[in-house]
Structure formats: C-alpha cells, structure tokens
Amino acid sequence: MHPPLAAVPVQQVSKRPTTTPARPVAVASEHKFCCLGRHQTIFPLSKPHTNTMKLSLALMCSALGYSAANPFAPKVTKNTAKARMNAKLMRGATPIRKLEQQEDGEVDLTNYSIKFEKCQFVKQYDAEEGGGEENDSILTTKRFVIFRLCPSSNCGSCNYNYGEYIVDMETYLESTLGFKEEEQEQYCETCNQCIEMAANYAEAQANGEDYEEDENAWMCNNVNTGSCYEECQNIENMEENGYMDASQYVGCEKLDYEDNYGNEYYAGAMCASSGSRIKIGIFTDEECSNYDETKDIENYMKNDDGYSTKLSYHLLKQTFPEGECVASCLQEDEEQNNNNNNNNNNNNNQQQAETAEVCRELYEASGKCESSHGFESQMYNYENYNNQVKNEELVCDFISSLSAGHYDQTGEIVVNGGRTTLGGGSATTGGQKFALTFFILGSVGLAGYAAMLHSQLTKGAKADLSRQGGAMA
Description:
Strand content: 15-25%
Structural class: alpha+beta
Radius of gyration: 30 Å
C-alpha cells in the first residue's frame, strides 16, 4: 500500500462545513454528499442515501457547478504553468509490459528500484549560444541528475549489483513527478473510497442491518482514514490556503514581477545542499541558466489575485527522498493484487508482474555505468549493448567527476579546495591545481607575446610604406 504522504503545512480550510466531524466516519443514519476533488467520488458527510442517490448527486455536482458552494469540488482547469506541466508529467506513470511478453532487447528491471543520488549543474562552452549577438556569454548551463537502479530488497545501502546513471534534469523530473502525481491521486482516491465504505458500514450497524463487504475492501487494510483525509484535503485546498505547488515551476516559468529597471525574473529547478536536494530558485534569463543567489523565491511568488504565496514541496521532495528509493520498477496488476489479498491465484504473480514506464524512460534516456557495479549480467540482451560497452568508461568517468564535487551549485568549476562529496570521488589535487594555474599564466604570457609581435610587425610595415611614399613624391 502507498506510504503516507507528508502533510502540507497549511491552515485548516475555513470553507469547510462546521457540521463535518474531525474524522469523517459517519455514526448516524443520516448523511449528505459532496464531490471530493477531481475524482468525482461521492463523499459521505450527513443525509440518508442510496446507491441511486449517490450517482445522481455525483452528476449534479459536475453538471450544475456545485463547486461554487463546495470547497472540495473540482475546479475548472486553467491554462496555467501548472496545467501545462501536468499535461507533460502524466505521460510517465503507466506500466509498459508484462514479463511473459518481454521482447528481445529489453532489460528486466522489475527487481530494481530508482534511487536519487545527486543533482548537478555544469557550465560548458556552447558555440551556438556564444555565436549570437544577443548572448552575453559563450557558456551554457547543463543540468544533470545521477540516480541508481538498486535491488528493491536492498535499496537503503545499494552497494553492489546496482547500476549508476546520468540523465538531464528535465527528463528525470518529468518522469518521476508524473509517477508521483499519479501515485498521489490514487492514494487520495483510495482514501476517499475507504472513508465511504467505513460510513456505509457504520450506517448498517446503526440500522441493525447486515453489511455486505465491498469487493475492494482489501485496499483499506493499510489506510488510516483519519490521517489520509487530512493530507488529501491539505493538498486539494493548497491554493486557497496560500500555497503553490513547487513542481509546477521545475521547467522555467516567468514570474509576474519586474523591478524598477525593467529586469524580468524566472523560476526554475536548481540543485541545493551540495546536490542532495532540488529546489526552486530565481534566475535572470529565460533559460534559467543565471541563478540570482541574492533573491528568495518566496518573496516573488503571487497567485492570480496578486496575493503573496509560499511554495509547497509536498510532491517535488518525493523525487529525492533521503535514504529511500523513489519508485519500484515492479508494478503488479491491480486485479492480481486483489486476488493476492484474497489468497487466490498466487501462483501467477511472476506472470502478472509489469515494469513501470518511469523506469523504462529513465533507463533508455540515461548514460549508463553498470559493469563496475555488478550490473553487467543485465545488459547482454539489451539492443544497444555494443554501444554501451564502447561508451561506458567515459560515462563512468563523467559521473565520478560530478560526484567528486568539482562544480558548485551554479555549475562553475571549483578550483580552490575540495568539498564533501556524495557517493565517492576525489578532491582536486595540488598537482592538478598547479597545472591549471601554469596553463592559465602561460596562455596569458603567450597572448602578450603575440600582441607585441603584432605591434612590431605593424610599425615596420608602416615605416616601409612611408619611405616608399617619399621616393614617389
């Protein structure tokens, strides 16, 4: 069952009806209904009901604009940064194949889980970016995330039989946020269903009637309806309580702010805490390459009504959990889960196993460092195996250089002194620093010498022309 989500630190919803109990499990025979969130699920609060009434009232909630009077009703989707981001994110959360249908060229990842290792910016020379008149720099910022595929049974330590990978931050966040968003929606939908089943059971008990258990009751075995209700309501009513979802700014979104000099600012994802976290920062360019460390993002956040808001990291922080894995690559069929909970057809578990698309997408998009970590046996049937062997050493070296702390959080090279690293690596040595300094000073000296020679040659040519001119006169 889905692990509990971290509650968003928001205040109690002021619009919530005063007749709603603190723990929404009915104990009387009367219930009323409202639509909870975007799932259009009937939610018991207080009035007599039947299954027919449930369906009718659900349709009324949707068709008659029930949201105007109900704080839990779904909202009309606006063409906002959040809506655009959600459209991209939801592509990454569906299962892709069953093991009995595994095709040649695919790697079996169902026994592994994704574990975040580090995020790192790197500034590199870019001929295209530096060639334009409008560009102030010939450097462009590349964003990387290092992650591992660890055995699901040993995700905490993950010190052998794992693969290490590097992928651009946009791909990593698009895939993992899509997975986590769908996981969160399923969690809240299950919570709502369990609350309704609890209310139906309580009503049957109050009326002295026999209660026929719902076929989906197994889903509620590990659900705390009290805590999950509060968590899901905090998330659903986030904006009403002065919070914005940080995950909608992981791209590069223009802020509704302009200073007295006409400068514009942008919000985007960046690395923090030596790469162990991902946060939203302020940038001065539309590519989110130039980080402005003098500004706090929350001082510039406003909602559609112009009121100041804060950022909630309830979803984004699930993409870099400390000491835990982000997602399991094994996704079992929902119907099979039901059968397993009823002790039926348990011999078919392996046939029903599926690989989550989040794992396939990240695996295919990433640079791979596997053989040195005991993951090589997984690669022989991979369709790009030969190409992987040729490039693996380069990928491993590049991952090591990022893990070693040779770059700061903005992507600049760190020359003076090393720093604490994540996942191993070495600090810059004294010999390396000397060689770099010697190279820089030597380049400056050669440039000066070349300028002197150019000056002498130019003066000599002018003198010759002057003498020629005098003779002609």
